[in-house]
Amino acid sequence: MSTRAELKVRTALIADTHPIANLIQLSPQVHRHLDWRDPLGWIGTPPFFVLESQGQTIAALGCPPDPPSIAWVRLFVNSGKIAPEKSWELLWNSSREELKKMGQYVAAAIVIKDWFHDLLKASGFASQQSIVMLERDGGNPPSLVLENQVTIRSMRTFDLPAVAKVDGLAFDLLWQNSLPVLERAFPQAIWPSVADYHDEVVGYQLSTRNSLGVHLSRLAVHPSWQGKGLGYALVADLIQKAGKSGITHLTVNTQNDNAESLALYQKLDFRETRDRYPVYQMEV
Length: 284
What we know:
By secondary structure, the chain is an alpha+beta fold. It contains seven helices and 14 strands. It has two domains: 4-124, Gcn5-related N-acetyltransferase (GNAT) (Aminopeptidase); 132-277, Gcn5-related N-acetyltransferase (GNAT) (Aminopeptidase), CATH 3.40.630.30. The strands form two sheets. It has a nine-stranded mixed sheet with strand order 5-7-14-8-13-12-11-10-9.
């Protein structure tokens, strides 16, 4: 085990990409944010730090803000050469100080693996809600009913600024997708679609293909159109497209305290699984 005197925290550089990639592949403790962007792509955007022992990279932590004022823990990886509590303490203290210099932020993390809970709690993070998973497997496709003069069409690159605007209005800041994030998400999506009303984007969905089926990654409706069946129509359209391609298994996640979202998915025959992922937050 390394002693504290041998340990050095410094800003991650592009030259650290390969060592950090090796850590991600080989380390026993790896936290990766559920993100459209590979965590290595955030190197060079602060705060992103590595921990060295005798010149060797043994841990890394990155939490660059996006959207503004929200700093998700996008990567924490510990090689096991020192206790995760020690590497997290050193790296998080440096990250927190960097965030303080940059402004006022909410730091947040979605915990996928149990070992990460105690590290966050010890640093003052608190869990206020959880992510719940739902799935739909088979069944008859829902009927597609649209409001008068509303159409659903394939999303195009030129739609992304309008899509980002809808996203910003539809979600609290913690859950918003910025335009740069959406620009990265769009090429990865399968059957991305928007709802149009008189050539104005009033809703959208982004989904991804995986080995089990399709995951509905994002659904947003302009606040003035919420409660009018537009979200239902966007998901129904997706289910129909998937069915025509022979895909019957769909998944989605939402917050456990988002009653409207849960009701919508249950109406579309999604059922909750046992998977729960706590969301931790703290003000910096």
